[in-house]
Design a protein that fits this description.
The chain has 187 residues and is mainly alpha-helical. Helices cover 73% and strands 0% of the residues. It starts with a helix and ends with a helix.
């Protein structure tokens, strides 16, 4: 079994654009979940059924129907963050970026910035902010989602961090020079 240091070295060799020592999943011990224990079980069951129907409708290209189903879920349990996440996706697909951002903000607020819904909302909001060229805000969202365990968000945060990109490029060059000294002498 490889040690944490061995994994970090291998990560730097095979993925030179990531920060040294940043091994995906190394500190992630459990899958993120949302705490739905505070909700009435019957209402929660009904909301989850609406959400499943909404996902199916969205996958079938019926975005307005999906939006209506997700809105019903929000109406039934307005304190449940996951419902806002789902509706934000439908709104985004319908081109309502402002509405999607409002729902993502609500999901993050309701989740307290923890759990699966917070992680997903932060990633979605980061992507929307990146598309709007709000790179500093996007990086903040990706960093928070990465801290919750999102590998995708971690990669996006690194891409948006100019200092990390420069350090990673230098590290990559050093490793390449060490692995291929003949090529280094020719340059």
């Amino acid at each position: 079994m490889a040690s944490a240091h061995d994994k970090a070295v291998l990560q730097a060799i095979f993925n030179p654009t990531t920060p040294f020592g940043d091994v995906p999943g190394l500190n992630q011990e459990e899958e993120l979940i949302d705490d739905d224990s505070g909700f009435d079980t019957e209402l929660l069951k009904r909301v989850k059924e609406l959400e499943m129907r909404g996902v199916s409708a969205a996958e079938a290209g019926e975005l307005q129907a999906a939006l209506q189903l997700f809105s019903q879920a929000v109406h039934i349990l307005p304190q449940r963050a996951a419902a806002y996440n789902n509706r934000a996706q439908a709104l985004r697909l319908l081109g309502d970026t402002a509405g999607a951002l409002q729902d993502l903000d609500q999901a993050i607020s309701l989740s307290g910035g923890t759990g699966r819904s917070a992680c997903q909302a932060l990633v979605q909001r980061g992507l929307l902010r990146r598309l709007a060229s709000q790179n500093d805000e996007a990086r903040e969202d990706f960093e928070k989602a990465a801290a919750l365990g999102s590998e995708f968000a971690r990669q996006q945060a690194v891409l948006l961090n100019p200092y990390a990109a420069l350090c990673n490029k230098m590290l990559s060059e050093v490793i390449n020079n060490l692995c291929n000294p003949d090529l280094a002498e020719m340059q």
